[in-house]
Amino acid sequence: MTRILYLQSSIFGDQGQSSQMATAFIEAYQARHPGTEVVVRDLVNDGVPHLDLARAGALRGFADSLDDEQKAALALSDALVEELRTADLVVVGLPMYNFGVPTQFKAWFDHIARAGVTFRYTADGPEGLVADRPVRVFASHGGFHVGQPHETSTTFIKAIFGFIGIEDVRFIYAEGLNISEDVKEEALEKARVETEAALAAL
């Protein structure tokens, strides 16, 4: 049985365009692969906190002893890592806010990037400890940004997953969504075609 980890990071929840694209992909995958399990991690509404000093100390091993709040932070991190490790396929709904990823997604990664757990430092540089698996990113942009120097989310996503050992990262974009209804519909249709191709390749 396949297990999908779905990371949703739109502040609009299920109504966000990136969320709708990702959900359509997951539903089509389930139709082709009955019995597929989906674990949903809503990074906005599930409340993955941003790092502070106490939380960083718990996750990075800076503290000799942990208080109850730090123990809870470590338990959340362990759960997030386990969700990733047990996923056969990772689906990311990724809007772009101010040329970058949502801060909620960055907070999720801050909780799973742990030395000795998901990566380790070696004399030859860092080494990822998470087995490679497909990651499909459904990215929505209000304008046309792919390939521009100011669009940092694509590079960031590829870099962070690669850092922990996951190289099979591919994007399906819908761009120009805020320009006009015609441009929006054309972009979403292009994304639908690319989604079908992504499904066929799995």
Automatic annotation (TrEMBL):
Its EC number is 1.6.5.-, 1.7.1.17
Q: Which UniProt keywords apply?
A: Flavoprotein, FMN, NAD, Oxidoreductase
Q: Which InterPro entries match?
A: Flavodoxin_fold, Flavoprotein-like_sf, FMN-dep_NADH:Q_OxRdtase_AzoR1, NADH:quinone_OxRdtase_FMN_depd
Report if keyword Flavoprotein is assigned: yes
Q: Where is the Flavodoxin-like fold domain?
A: 3-197
- What's the short name of a Pfam family annotated to this entry? Flavodoxin_2
Binding note for cofactor = Binds 1 FMN per subunit.
Enzyme superclass (EC): oxidoreductase
Give the family, as the similarity comment puts it: Belongs to the azoreductase type 1 family.
Q: What is this protein called?
A: FMN dependent NADH:quinone oxidoreductase
Query: What organism is recorded for this protein?
Result: Alloalcanivorax balearicus MACL04
